[in-house]
């Protein structure tokens, strides 16, 4: 896999270099412009960490990602998300370094995917095509099945093993299949 293929595995629109859309996007610097750059730096860091190890480039892109992450409120370590990550809003997205999230995950702002602080490892395992709503939290060594939608403001502290359901509330409970 080439670096370009690895970076473009996420569903973001990258305007063609030196095109009209490229200049408009670069000039206006919208919310999605910065999010797209953050995810691009994240994927470059992962590429130079796992696929084509290069310490210098790894640290360079890690630094760029972290500087932009401070501006956006993101803390997402390399290697947590599989392909297809989609972030809709900036603002406080925190992911535990040991959390594992499947393909095509969607995250809205103000989310936390973390541990409860217990030993040895209590980080979440989240399946494919999971949609995590605004302000939702997934805490502890739990498993979330494929296709689950986590509602805005939900606090998920128990495993959701049934695929394609919606969970809402504090603590989160299954509402209905979708």
From TrEMBL:
InterPro entries: Hexapep (IPR001451), Hexapep_transf_CS (IPR018357), LbH_SAT (IPR045304), Trimer_LpxA-like_sf (IPR011004)
Any one GO molecular function term: serine O-acetyltransferase activity
Keywords associated with the record: Acyltransferase, Repeat, Transferase
EC top class, as a word: transferase
Pfam hit, one: Hexapep
CDD domains: LbH_SAT (cd03354)
Enzyme Commission designation: 2.3.1.30
Family affiliation: Belongs to the transferase hexapeptide repeat family.
Name by which UniProt lists this protein: Serine O-acetyltransferase
């Amino acid at each position: 896999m080439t670096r370009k293929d690895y970076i473009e595995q996420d569903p973001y629109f990258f305007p063609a270099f030196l095109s009209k859309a490229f200049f408009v996007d670069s000039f206006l610097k919208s919310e999605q412009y910065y999010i797209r750059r953050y995810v691009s730096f994240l994927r470059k860091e992962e590429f130079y960490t796992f696929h084509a190890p290069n310490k210098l480039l790894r640290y360079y892109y890690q630094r760029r990602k972290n500087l932009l992450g401070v501006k956006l409120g993101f803390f997402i370590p390399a290697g947590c998300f599989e392909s297809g990550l989609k972030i809709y809003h900036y603002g406080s997205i925190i992911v535990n370094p040991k959390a594992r999230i499947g393909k095509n995950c969607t995250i809205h702002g103000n989310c936390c995917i973390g541990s409860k602080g217990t030993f040895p490892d209590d980080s979440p395992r989240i399946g494919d095509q999971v949609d995590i709503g605004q302000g939702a939290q997934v805490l502890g060594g739990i498993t979330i099945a494929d296709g689950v939608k986590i509602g805005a403001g939900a606090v998920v502290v128990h495993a959701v093993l049934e695929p394609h359901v919606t969970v809402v509330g504090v603590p989160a409970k299954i509402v209905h299949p979708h």
